[in-house]
Amino acid sequence: MDAFFASVELLRYPQLKGLPVVIGGRRREGDALLPQGPDGAGPSSVPVADFARLRDYVGRGVITTATYAARQFGVGSAMGMMKAARLCPQAIVLPVDADEVRRYSRLFKSTITEIAPVMQDRGVDEVYIDFTEVPGGQREGGRVLARLIQKSIFDRTGLTCSIGVAPNRLLAKMASEFDKPNGVSIVYAQDLQSRIWPLDVRKISGIGPKAGAKLAALGVHTIGELAAQDPQWLVERFGKSIGAWMHRAAWGQDDSPVVTTSEPVSMSRETTFERDLHAVHDKAELGRIFTDLCMRLAQDLQRKGYVARTIGVKLRYDDFRTATREQTACNYTADGATIRQLAGQCLRRVPLDRRLRLLGVRAGTLVRRGEEPGPSARTYGQGRDAQDAMGTGQLF
DNA sequence: TCTGGGGTCCTAGGCCCA
DNA sequence: TCTGTGGGCCTAGGACCC
Length: 396
Known about the structure:
Blueprint: E1 3-8, E2 21-24, E3 63-66, H1 68-71, H2 81-87, E4 92-94, H3 98-115, E5 119-121, E6 126-130, H4 143-157, E7 161-166, H5 169-176, E8 184-186, H6 192-196, H7 209-217, H8 223-227, H9 231-238, H10 240-250, E9 267-277, H11 283-304, E10 306-317, E11 322-333, H12 336-347, E12 356-368, H13 384-389
Parallel strand pairs: 2-4, 7-8
Antiparallel strand pairs: 1-6, 1-7, 2-3, 5-6, 9-12, 10-11, 10-12
Helix pairs in contact: 3-4, 9-10, 11-12
The chain binds a DNA duplex through strand 3, helix 2, helix 7, strand 9 and strand 11.
């Protein structure tokens, strides 16, 4: 299989090109989404000076993405806004406009599938494409088709994207990193030792901060060093599945197909509070938020046509520890009140002695509405804790 | 003053059942 | 009848991704 990996940079205001810009943070009620130009001309006509700056940002939140100009200051995705403001106070802050991002994401993907129909979603701004069967897909190792896709995306959306082409998804993803934000990189199987092995192990999608640090502590820093390890040695340290996968990945091996359809496994809604809340002192406010999360989750399920049998809660304490509890019911549901009741039972099994910074509600074991199997013969979550919770009053 | 939100997958332990 | 074993499901937590 030959695979493309394409990712787009979701910044489209030409007057901000080349400037440090971060997208992210948390929007407060009543905040204007973006400064608007005269006569409804939109943000594209707003002078640079009129955009908000990172130094003026107040409150919680993280960076969703940053331009390459901002990244030069050390600012990057998932960084706290306050830390980013210290590193690059002059950066322009744009809010996340989720509806607009979704619209452009759909446009980006439909442009690709019109050219190469076998495409796998990898989030809002990334896709894998199998172009084995696309006419002309092999010309110049795939470069011709990649350029065509790039141009089509730019013509349709005004967005640039970087593309990697390689024998499989794993290598294509790494190849796409080689020439950002608007390049095409081709990696052949025989390039493994010269172009992949010198890279840091963290460049492998799936090796994150924890595994990266553990490997570093074991003296393994590059992908080449990872490839040199005995697979059994990796299995003993990272487990059967991940250890074996790591070794295959280091050798550039990946036989996973480009999957064009998938069913959701879970849906959830969560929110971080403006200030930490206490289960007793802020009971009314927490109750309102909790109910709202349950209702929004129910709406999500109903809108997308799913019902769930497992309902759970997620809490994050003021010390950032996380606790989850979940319960699988006899029947499937997408009803807000039922979800609220089940989630409330889960909540009673969590310690609530510390202040909370986040509350979430999750629905799992999903099936399409109308395709529910019969009631489960066995029910779980009926232990002492769960029984304590049954039939008692609501916590919040 | 750190650290969002919405997901997937893996692991480990417990329980139940054949 | 008792015990051991293995599989499936549930639960909680963690790692990782965009």
